[in-house]
């Protein structure tokens, strides 16, 4: 037994799912990986290509070719929509329930009342029209998340030059206690003001009101975030199962923010290069365990509809994936996957419902194809199979298809 490593390239989908025309018509035509390669033809991602990226896209593009020796598969999203929080719960072996769908406007009275009871200064914006968002202590806004499936996520956005993030988290916790949507994202950035947040306030369908986070500039400097979920039982997920067996668990990036763990080593953060440095250090030190890293900056570039930035982050990730490959022995497995798509060329800034790649590396196997998986939980089941533990709530192991013969 050795190391089982999962790297989630956040939002790196490989083509729209079959149900998209019916359930998400605005995602028709999405293919995040393909469109980035087409628009940035000089992108340098040799390791992803060697691992079989073009195989999962399903076609070659100019000099970007499939690799017949690659070990590959694709996975559907079992959760409803295309959500990072639910996607990661699925990757960890959960069958996420269909979340409550509710605009913030239906909960604004309750949230306002809760915050005022706890001594916060609260006002509504805009004053003369609806739907509205809340402004707290002149530095925090609360409203709908406009970047993912509408009605499932509320955002608590803040200007961290004006308030400490520890106080923002207290506000977020009060919102979380009050509402029942699947997620409350509590975050903030430096170098912005309340005016930046309010100037990025938008309304969609005369029903959803929130702050366009990329437009506000909140991601650009000193970004901090905590994802507060609802209705997820971590005890049935792979990290808890492994911890009960005293198997080390290491989480880096956004996965450290949104997956609950009691004993795992956590390295949250956003900067891709720094996260890989920490992650590689732990891989060098720990010779037996489960490692998972989320590369969030790809998703941020997708929300910003910034193809060039997306490509640059992919290049950083690719280079570091190459470093990790050189460190692995015959007992180690590396999986490169994603949690949904976020095609920056599709014409909107929200996630896209796409198949995700499953790129598999072990130094002694080649030309394995695990097909199209019905759920991303299959990777969690494979981790459990690899370590010989109980299975998570959901998923079917594909270990038999990738073991060394």
Automatic annotation (TrEMBL):
<dbReference type="GO" id="GO:0005829">
    <property type="term" value="C:cytosol"/>
</dbReference>
<dbReference type="InterPro" id="IPR024052">
    <property type="entry name" value="Phosphopentomutase_DeoB_cap_sf"/>
</dbReference>
<dbReference type="GO" id="GO:0009117">
    <property type="term" value="P:nucleotide metabolic process"/>
</dbReference>
<dbReference type="InterPro" id="IPR017850">
    <property type="entry name" value="Alkaline_phosphatase_core_sf"/>
</dbReference>
<dbReference type="InterPro" id="IPR006124">
    <property type="entry name" value="Metalloenzyme"/>
</dbReference>
<dbReference type="GO" id="GO:0008973">
    <property type="term" value="F:phosphopentomutase activity"/>
</dbReference>
<dbReference type="InterPro" id="IPR010045">
    <property type="entry name" value="DeoB"/>
</dbReference>
<feature type="domain" description="Metalloenzyme">
    <location>
        <begin position="3"/>
        <end position="390"/>
    </location>
</feature>
<protein>
    <submittedName>
        <fullName>Phosphopentomutase</fullName>
        <ecNumber>5.4.2.7</ecNumber>
    </submittedName>
</protein>
<comment type="similarity">
    <text>Belongs to the phosphopentomutase family.</text>
</comment>
<dbReference type="Pfam" id="PF01676">
    <property type="entry name" value="Metalloenzyme"/>
</dbReference>
<dbReference type="GO" id="GO:0000287">
    <property type="term" value="F:magnesium ion binding"/>
</dbReference>
<dbReference type="GO" id="GO:0043094">
    <property type="term" value="P:metabolic compound salvage"/>
</dbReference>
<keyword id="KW-0464">Manganese</keyword>
<keyword id="KW-0479">Metal-binding</keyword>
<keyword id="KW-0413">Isomerase</keyword>
